[in-house]
Design brief:
- This protein is of the alpha/beta class.
- It is built from eleven helices and eleven strands.
- Strands 5-4-3-6-7-11-9 form a seven-stranded mixed sheet, with helices on both faces. A two-stranded antiparallel sheet has the order 1-2. Strands 8-10 form a two-stranded antiparallel ribbon.
- The termini are far apart.
Length: 334
């Protein structure tokens, strides 16, 4: 149970905020919709997704080299995210923080933490664009499938960089809808995707943000950026085979409210899509996922000194190679 401090106030969400300034975030959170909504079905899908993407996230954390004693944060953790994976890697001497804007997701994540006895994990209700957490305090700042589902991605990336300590790592696992298609092609898929894309764009959401995540990181000041692309084919019976259909179901009411499509047309197209996806002979290709990570510079001065040192070393090597090439070859007289 949370105990309120004298300077805390409670909102109608039932969650406590550390100061009056954080109360102002509530209205802003409502104005920054999560693309797929927060229905019970979506929360369950996110729980399944944690298991489905577990191997890929584990690979990323191992590649980064997150070790015992580290401090890590998962932005947009939803009902589970990667909290258990991070907990396992930082160990009893480390600490993990999970944040989410949705109170129900925070409550579900806290139950998950309690059930798994993850004593080095805390979950808090925060806005990813302005967490209110101390800056330069995490060895790893991570977000998975957040940027593709929210507006103001530049603000989220800036906050991620702010939270990372100098020398720390910022990492993202993001989707790009470029490669998400079915074959044989289906008119219903194409029509529904155009509607979905229009809805997303109208709400400030970029379905193709995955390809530019590396650029967002670089423009935010990160260095030593690396990129790992991931793509899948979803065979018949795979949980994620009908993911596009589920996404559309999640936003159905919003599409109808915004009069982007008539209910009769939507229902007909969805029935066609479901039937097509249920056919064993239909090929379904996943989104193109980009795992991107980079390092926050220790300081501008130290980074500049590092570059100077590297240039000096490079010139010395070039000069050495030049001398070797120009040195006369001595041959034994016959």
């Amino acid at each position: 149970m949370t105990t309120a401090h004298p300077n805390e106030s409670q909102t109608n969400t039932g969650y406590l905020f550390d100061n009056a300034g954080e109360q102002n975030q509530v209205s802003r959170l409502k104005a920054q919709p999560y693309l797929l909504g927060h229905s019970d079905d979506e929360e369950l899908r996110l729980r399944r997704q944690a298991a489905e993407l577990r191997h890929e996230s584990a690979w990323l954390f191992d590649r980064i080299g997150l070790g015992a004693g580290s401090r890590a944060i998962d932005l947009g953790c939803g009902p589970q995210g990667v909290l258990d994976l991070l907990s396992e890697r930082v160990g009893s001497t480390g600490h993990v923080t999970g944040i989410d804007t949705n109170p129900e997701s925070v409550a579900m994540a806290q139950r998950f933490v309690d059930e798994q006895a993850l004593e080095n994990v805390e979950v808090v209700h925060r806005d990813a664009t302005a967490t209110g957490l101390p800056g330069a305090s995490f060895d790893l700042v991570h977000a998975r499938l957040v940027l593709v589902n929210v507006p103001y991605v530049d603000a989220v990336v800036r906050e991620m960089v702010r939270l990372a300590r100098p020398g720390g790592v910022v990492a993202s696992h993001e989707a790009d809808y470029l490669s998400h298609f079915c074959d044989p092609p289906l008119r219903a898929w194409d029509r529904l995707f155009e509607i979905f894309k229009g809805y997303s764009s109208a709400n400030g959401i970029d379905l193709f943000v995955g390809r530019r995540t590396h650029r967002l990181f670089r423009e935010a000041g990160l260095v030593d950026i690396e990129v790992n692309p991931v793509i899948h084919v979803y065979p018949h019976g795979h949980n994620r085979r009908a993911i596009f259909w589920h996404f559309l179901q999640n936003v159905r009411d919003r599409l109808l409210e915004q009069e982007l499509i008539a209910e009769s047309e939507f229902s007909g197209l969805m029935a066609e899509l479901k039937e097509h996806l249920d056919r064993p002979g239909t090929l379904v290709v996943s989104h193109l996922f980009f795992q991107v990570w980079g390092r926050k510079p220790l300081s501008h001065k130290s980074e500049e000194q590092s570059l100077v040192t590297e240039r000096v070393r490079s010139r010395a090597l070039d000069k050495s190679e030049s001398l070797i090439k120009s040195r006369p070859v001595l041959r034994k007289a016959s």
